[in-house]
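In the laboratory, one determines a bound structure by crystallizing the protein with its ligand and collecting diffraction data. In a computational setting the workflow is compressed into a single prediction: the sequence and the ligand go in, and a structural description comes out. We illustrate the idea with adenosine-5'-diphosphate.
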Amino acid sequence: MQPEVTEPEANSPAKPLLEARGLTKIYGSGPAAVRALDGVDLELYPGEFVVLLGPSGSGKTTLLNQLGGLDVPTSGVIRFRGRDLATASDAERTRYRRESVGFVFQFYNLMPSLTARENVALITELAPDPMDPEEALRMVRLGERLDHFPSQLSGGEQQRVAIARAIAKRPSVLLCDEPTGALDVRTGVAVLEAIERVNRELGTLTVVITHNAVIADMADRVIHLMDGRIQHQRRNPVRIPPRELRW
Ligand code: ADP
Ligand code: MG
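The predicted complex, in structure-token form:
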């Protein structure tokens, strides 16, 4: 029997979802120029949980903004599913952000006059195949807080609403910039559990920026940034659940 014709890459490892090559970002010009990213090469794979560590000013947020299509590089390439976001049109980059990326920031930016459910629903109206807001809120363990307003929720609960809002469009990429930066340890753990559950159950490529090295133990892979470059990377043999992290 003739073997079936297969794609050449059929037996090769998974393709990266996001890929950076020589990614460079310079803010400003002349003597005031700041080289925030300096030739970053990186591959991020579907379903991975990646923690990005590095001191303040090392380029973490700049890299996350590039991965999320919020900004374009000065030079180099940043590909999503093989398509270069740097040379894509603004409309294409907007579509990438809207359909494929969930963002979580240190501050939750919820609408104070809307309930948890309504805050999530705002986003699902824009997405082609959204989750029910209630389902997204249950995933972050807020199924009992659907009709609470932000002012009736703790900081950690508000951040979990922000996570529900970010994932309700079923993004393939979840980007979190210091998601526990404003929280104490106990509420921070609940937020990390919500992020970890999304990654595990939805298979969302997840990148978490933190300057807390303890959090790195919950990742598949840890990337250290320094002066706009990847200083080193490591792969963890096992992922430690957030509540078992030693603070
Ligand atoms: P991190 O998130 O690791 O603290 P950033 O990516 O925010 O680092 O910043 C990297 C460098 O780029 C820093 O020196 C910072 O001052 C500079 N920078 C970041 N954003 C801007 C901007 N919009 N304009 C000018 N410089 C910036
Ligand atoms: Mg930052």
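The CA atoms of residues 25 and 74 lie 5 Å apart. Keep in mind that any predicted model is a hypothesis to be tested, not a measurement.
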